Amino acid sequence: MTTEETKALLVIDVQRGFDEPVWGPRDNPGAEANIKALVDAWQERGLPIVLVHHDSVKPGSSLRPGQEGNHFKPELDGVRADLVFGKKVNSAFHGDIDLDGWLKTRGITSFVLAGIQTNFCCETTARVGGNLGYDVTFALDATFTFDLAGPDGSVLTAGELSKATATNLHGGGFATVTSTKEILGTL
């Protein structure tokens, strides 16, 4: 396999439920356009695409299976994914499918990660992927998150949380943090 053939695109939790006001202020209004650009580029080249959705077990969550919010956002309409599965926790490596096994049986050693939320499911999947030995590329501008209160009540903005994720992944050696433009320039 060539290097290009071994690079999958993992799209995490790009679901309609994250459009609800309950989440609060978000960052990166261009994330969906960047996600779509990555998906389109992968499809044009016939590269593997994995779509993951969060299947909440919380009774009131719009991300529960069967709820409209559990469905993928329109940017993913028509995507010919190689694998689609759900998860109930943050890491896609701990979902309804053995993602590690699926990637390894296909000779996939690296992946680009995009999706929602930057500092939760995307960061956790990148960290676990890095721990498992994958070459992880984190498309920071193809993710977004929301403001979040800490244990003392102080709030970090979505932008601050995204910057912290980028720092954690880069500084911890879990992933290469870059932009959609840079990724598309290397395909």
Task: Tag the structure with descriptive keywords.
187 residues, alpha/beta, Rossmann fold, 6-stranded parallel β-sheet, two-stranded antiparallel ribbon, 5 helices, 8 strands, globular, hydrolase, Isochorismatase-like_dom, hydrolase activity, Isochorismatase, Isochorismatase-like_hydrls
Explained architecture:
It holds the Pfam family Isochorismatase. Residues 8-149 form the Isochorismatase-like domain. The chain has 187 residues and is α/β, with parallel strands linked by helices. It has one domain (7-186): Isochorismatase-like (Rossmann fold). It is built from five helices and eight strands; from the N terminus they run E-H-E-E-H-E-H-E-E-E-H-E-H. The protein has helices at residues 31-45, 99-105, 118-131, 158-171, 180-186, and strands at residues 7-12, 49-54, 83-87, 110-116, 135-144, 148-149, 155-156, 176-178. The protein has a six-stranded parallel β-sheet, sandwiched between helices. Strands 6-7 form a two-stranded antiparallel sheet. It is globular, with a radius of gyration of 15 Å.
Question: Count the strands?
Answer: 8
Q: Determine the CATH topology.
A: Rossmann fold
Sheet with most strands: strand arrangement: 3-2-1-4-5-8
Question: Do you know the CATH architecture?
Answer: 3-Layer(aba) Sandwich
Whole-Å distance between the termini? 15 Å
Work out the strand percent. 15-25%
Structural class: alpha/beta
Largest β-sheet summary: 6 strands, parallel
How large, in whole angstroms, is the Cα Rg?
Answer: 15 Å
Integer count of domains: 1
CATH class category: Alpha Beta
InterPro entries: Isochorismatase-like_dom (IPR000868), Isochorismatase-like_hydrls (IPR050272), Isochorismatase-like_sf (IPR036380)
Pfam families: Isochorismatase
Protein name: Isochorismatase
Domain Isochorismatase-like: 8-149
